[in-house]
Amino acid sequence: MAVGAVLYGLIVLIGLWFFGEVIIRTLFGVDYLAALPLIKVMSLVPLLKSGSFVCVTVILSLNRQKLRVGLQAIVTIVSVIGGFVIIPIFGLYGAVLLYVFIEGLIFFLYTGSVIYLLRGEWK
Q: Which residues form a coiled coil (predicted)?
């Protein structure tokens, strides 16, 4: 499962990064090409989300639902505060960067939690 999730994330990342212009032009027309820089930044999200999905599966299989909810609460608070601060200053680009940061943060917290839990469970 983990390999498939990472492959999915990498394929989407590479596909959007290198072929985003062709995809936008084909599906939506040239009027939407201005979105390409945002799409390239957001192309990291599927990779981060697929990694988070694998980590959440481990957390839930270890019956640590409260840990997951706690981590999500922390990230939600950071997201809301970050949105109030960053979006008025940087607009759309700030929102995109904040979104990628939030996905990276939740991935980092999930991964760290899984490493901690597995070390504790296996000792």
A: none
Give 65's contacts (C-beta < 8 A, 6+ positions apart): 59
Contact predicate 50/42, CB 8 Å: no
Total domains, the chain: 1
Segments in the chain below pLDDT 50: 123
What is the residue range of 78's domain?
A: 2-122
Best CA proximity match to 20, nearest among 8, 33, 9, 29: 33
Question: Which has the closest alpha carbon to 77: 35, 116, 109, 111?
Answer: 109
d(CA 64, CA 110): 11
- The number of beta carbons lying within 10 Å of the beta carbon of residue 4 is 10
